[in-house]
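Subject: for your reference before the review

Hello V.,

The reviewers asked for a structural picture of the protein, and I figured it would be easier to keep everything in one thread rather than splitting it across files. Below is the amino acid sequence we used in the manuscript, unchanged from the supplementary table.
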Amino acid sequence: MKIPNRIDILGVMYTIKFENNPKVIGEPDGSVWGYTSYESASIILRKGLKKQQREKTLVHEVMHALLHEMGQFEYCADEELICTLETGIYQILKDNEL
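And here is what came back from the structure prediction:
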């Protein structure tokens, strides 16, 4: 899977960026593989992730952004739901070489 520089999510153009050590307040150690900023329409991925980690993290963050742009605010913050969707969608993409 190619990681693009930008991705259109329901008409909102999200920029995909890489950071050395992305941090999110509220995480146990503050460090994450990625996060989504709805305000700046950006998806941040950790630099140096292995290919599969990077791809799964992108799918995970796209799920957050998709649900947010659909107005499903309760669901876009539901990590259990997002992780479940991430796993299923990532496997479909890989199995079908998309």
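For the response letter, the relevant points are probably these. The chain has a mean pLDDT of 93. The domain at 6-95 is CATH 1.10.10 (Arc Repressor Mutant, subunit A).

Happy to draft the paragraph if you're swamped.

O.
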